[in-house]
Description:
The chain is mainly α. The protein has three domains: 19-203, MFS general substrate transporter like domains (Growth Hormone, Chain: A), CATH 1.20.1250.20; 213-263; 272-485, Growth Hormone, Chain: A (Up-down Bundle), CATH 1.20.1250. The protein is 81% helix and 0% strand. The protein has 18 helices and no strands. The chain has helices spanning 9-12, 21-55, 59-87, 89-109, 113-141, 144-175, 180-183, 185-199, 213-236, 241-263, 277-307, 312-318, 320-340, 343-360, 369-395, 400-433, 438-467, 470-482. Helix 9 (213-236) packs parallel to helix 16.
Amino acid sequence: MTNTLAPPKSRERSAAGGASPRLNWVLALCSVAFFMSCLDTLVVATALPRIQESLHVSFANLQWTVNAYNIAVAAGIICAAALGDRFGRRRLFCLGLILFTVASAACALAPSAAVLIGARTVQGLGGAVILPLSLTILTEAFPAERRAAVFGIYGGLAGLAVALGPIVGGAITQGIDWHWIFWINIPIGVAAFVLAALFVPESKAARARRVDVGGQLAVVVLLASLTYAIIEAPRVGWGSVETVALLLVALAALVTLIRHERRRADPLLDVRFFRSVPFAAATMTAVCAFGAFAGFLFVNTLYLQDVRGYSALQAGLCMLPFAVLTMIFAPVSGRMVGSRGPRAPLLLSGVAMFVGGLLLVPITSTTPLPWVLAGYAVFALGFGMVNAPITNAAVSGMPRSQAGVAAAVASTSRQVGAALGVAVVGSVLSSGLAGASLEAGFASAARADWWIIAACGFAVLALGALSTGRWAVGTAARTAGLVADDERAPAAA
């Protein structure tokens, strides 16, 4: 890797051997930008009932308010990383901050659901740039011996976002107005842009991959058509011409993507990765786990506020045990992966998510709150355990030159899972209500959703068992041999 404007090493450390103020600012900048992009989805989830009431948003558009962001992030992460390698990471990172900040203002000023969904899409494109490049900038800026501690701080902020998101969203929505959940991004985004311009050195990859326009278009068409079909199916019918046509478009986009990527020298996604059982299973585990989590957030927000009648702040406080347990078990899982491998945390995660989902199947408006919170706690234990083994399994056995791409695919899978989780759970709930109000029909309509969430937990359990055996590890080693490290190849034009 090259770092064209990196300061001399003598200026990067103090006399005591610690990090220079410049590096500390870089860490603060990347961490805050990452925290802002993670916090956004959780804050918005808490405000959904108020947004629906204020803008007279239909149930389908409520799903799109969440999923416009998720789809844009999922579709853009890998491409953003490649563009940063080619055109400069600081330059593109600053562009991502501009997109996210301007789109946040547009969300706050949105007069209608259509404008809000469009602004959320642009906000997601900014997030797609911020997420991978903030991590790459940290990797470039810090020496190898400090990266573990730096990544621990960086990754810990995701848990902090889970903890603070529902509470912050509830406090702002109830105490001020839902528009302010977007206004708070403006000063953060402006400050991050200034810090990036002042302290982040520009860097590019020594060998930048060519931008795969065809592959990127296929990914966008695949995600958009599949999600649209699932969200709109309750309104137009699962057997309608519109739904069937959209599903066929999604299938055609998937086939086109696979055929296109197999022919490219620098593919957006190297399909040979999926010959590694740990990698393929990590991808599916990410989809299932984050689909369950996003679906849980969507249904639970409506349950607490519209069914139980809690205020936005009270709903956020009900999520505090979930957040605390997630923060506790995420580092525990990381240590388990480091000392014993990914098998135990994956199995524990699957069991806990499955049992947590089962505990929530029978809940109604009169279910005792301790029972509901117990379901949250068990599910949170499982979700907290799943992240570290996903990343570990994704990069396990991959050549070092491909580890970043493999990790980016895992990140994309998380966002795809979140988008599909909201789409599927929301559509099932909408179909189950069949015109009834949430208060009257939620218990029976949401029962299928909790079963889906529990099934996702069982899938995590099954995939964990499948992907951590001796045979599976052997496929990872064979795949690493196929995906040869080609550092001596000439740079792409």
